[in-house]
């Protein structure tokens, strides 16, 4: 029975085979047999095609050979004819030489006794030169000109080639051919040099050295002491190494050196091996019988990184002199770098007498080499669209040649890189066509291979270009890129017409805030350039300034060159490039960092910004800092990076930020309600006021914060669908709706700020109106303020609350208030103040900047510089309406400050005046401060109590003193009272939960102590303010001496009757009693020339003023007595009521009588209180009227003193129609004063 088991195996090609066990294994694999048959058929077909091509090629070669042979025959006939003529001329020359030699032998020259050898040689040379020159010129007329032979090195396929693309005939090659054909000389090493393309100067110098050696030999001069050391200078790829090798062998063949040993090394290797290494090589050459030592890149010996290079070069210097005639030293390097080599030691120039400069290859030479390289690579089988000398080839060579003349131009190496790039483009194109099923010609170079794709077509197919157009915002950037692309399109068309392209640079400056897409656009920009064929690589390499800056001298240059070398063909992005500038903010722009300067200088030297340069460098940074850098560093940087054509990345507006927010929500599978999105945009709008707004980065940060708040506030953290609400983006998102309520609550602890609250409420209403109408005009709301007022009136307190007010209105990104003084703005040396002030303003962006004692900015030169900087900065868009600036100080001092700079007053049009606090307000502040520490002073609750009135009078007396601090003094008093209350509570054992109490006597003692202390200080002589101002200013009005109200103080202590609860009359009397004015009136004498009528009228006005003041005092005294009587009556009625309440009635009738009497006492008490209020209102009205009069009078007196009419400084007396000084000579009318 047959076995049916299936057996599986694989053939040698890996195909699966299967058969049953009773069957034999298949002898062959069907798949392999089928594949072999297909391969055989294909091979036969390919063989037939190859045979056909070979036959056609063979026929072509035979025909070309016949033509070349015919041409060669004609050329040979011409050469034979010319050679025969040259031979005849040479024979004739030699015959003449023989005759001259016989003549010299027969007639030896007369010897000079002083120097016989020199005279003999000179005479012989002169005779020979003269005779040779004469005879040769005659015979040479029959020799045809060399130019008639044609250009032997020109390409044969030159149809349609412009005349300027032909290789120029080499005169050195012609001379060498002449010597070989006529003189019969030969030297394979000279042949090798002559066969090189170009290098006319090199060839000429080689023939000169060869002629020198031949001349020396003919002269019989020993040649073993001739210095033949040579320096080969030029860019890479010019054949320096090849020439060096041939030069050494040439000298050996001419027996200029005894041996042909050749050692090739580099400057870096010599420096690494040290003196011992070069000594060993010198000995090696000497042992070999002499030869050549070739040091390539010799400038590396003087590099700062090679510490052993200097000693090695010093050793070489001596060996060059010791081994003249035995060893020839050849040094090679780039032109600029070799300057440091020869500067190392002055003796190098004399020891290396020959210098050959290798010029960069011209376009015809590059074209010739291009053809030779392709011919060697493809053996003549490659075909080129337009021909090997056609338009597209010339365009490719022109692009390469534009780098000619620059340091580091690669010449032949760069040409090889160009060929490699062409072949890469060809391979990419062929691959794309093969993927489409086509059969392209592998041996054809088309237009796109040679010069890249058409930019207009490549741009439409570029993914990077399309992605750039899809990016949000960036309107200006897109327009700039589009304009650049249009220029590139135009240049492509100009090249097709063989016109020079418009000079543009791929290097660009990107200016903008963070988060605006600079790095993303940089990558897209680089890819676009690659798609257009302008860059060979397109990789984006991001670096920052720290990657360029070295730790020691010379390292910055090295690191910069290494980075530039490694990014050839790529896009190099230098982020925050402004950090390469060593000066800047805080330094006054005067300092310099040599390490950073070295980086910029190297960038300028290495980056050429010429068309065809295979490199793109992008400088990224903030606009202001970048502009400052370009203004202060190497001017060449601005030529290589045109900052006026920079890509300006503008901050995203609200609509664009909303698009970014929606995009990020979509990418992260999140969502948000429409109100939440609106709140998010409002938050971003406030953040925009801060410096360096992060744009898209801020959106990401805001989303991160919203995620954290979402999970903190949600009860179900495992919820998958996340929908953000308004409170997730801003927990206080409704602050704008609560602004008025917040404002009232914010100022509830500030005494006497009703006018300020009213003004700020108006600002809030205006902001809401603008927001409701969709008007974005923040200039309608004031942002710069001047706070004027005495100390302790709440200027600092109100300023601290301004941050919250403007934050609620959405004007600020933070409620923070930055407090500073004038010292924080003023610098210590010239040029320091401006940057310091600017830095403080930048720090305060989006906040409130409160400058206390701002009047000090009017003192000194540096302070004036701070004012100038402040005035200039507040007009810039960077700061305008993005910062709240408050200048605070005393009234007159602030007026003087605003007069220093006219622009300052216009920048601060809003003024808020803080007045001295009334005693009742001061006691209110005192009561609040005590209540905060749980301390109670009962008399403060009873304005009609004797203790309250006593404290009222004492504080009134305090307020008259010059050192009066308003609420500040009240806070200081509260501290002392709290200390007394704490000690008393501890002594009495008062429980902690029970409020502490302080007696009125202790409170009055505290006020007395403060009064006595400040009174003593007021008697001290005040130190005048600094007059260090170096700019003209008006003399300030004379200030009255400190008031010492001893009489008032004594009266307050001796009077037993309490003062009224309101102080208007006393305040008016004291404030009008100006001791300085009284003194001026008392000492004023009648001026000369004053008539009796004027003087009598003046004295009458003075007397009327005194009588009016006396009448005011009497009226105040009368009102005070009435108030005292009413208070006493109310007190008696209160005592009677209390007595009646305590009495115990014995019967109903007596109880009714007592009830009636108690009711009468209550009614009388009410009448007394009403009368007290009436009198208080009358006093308040009188005080208000007198206060207005006093202010008007004070304003008039201040204006009169400022005018300086009265040089004696007398007080001015109101005459009704005007004012006259107390001396009587000067008069100013009301009309002139403007009242």
UniProtKB/TrEMBL annotation:
Residues 1099-1202 form a coiled coil. The keyword Glycoprotein does not apply. Pfam families: AAA, AAA_lid_6. Residues 1034-1043 have a biased composition (Pro residues). InterPro entries: AAA+_ATPase, AAA_lid_6, ATPase_AAA_core, CbxX/CfxQ, CbxX/CfxQ_RuBisCO_ESX, P-loop_NTPase. Residues 170-181 have a biased composition (Basic and acidic residues). The keyword Nucleotide-binding applies. CDD domains: AAA (cd00009). Belongs to the CbxX/CfxQ family. This is AAA+ ATPase domain-containing protein. It comes from Sphagnurus paluster.
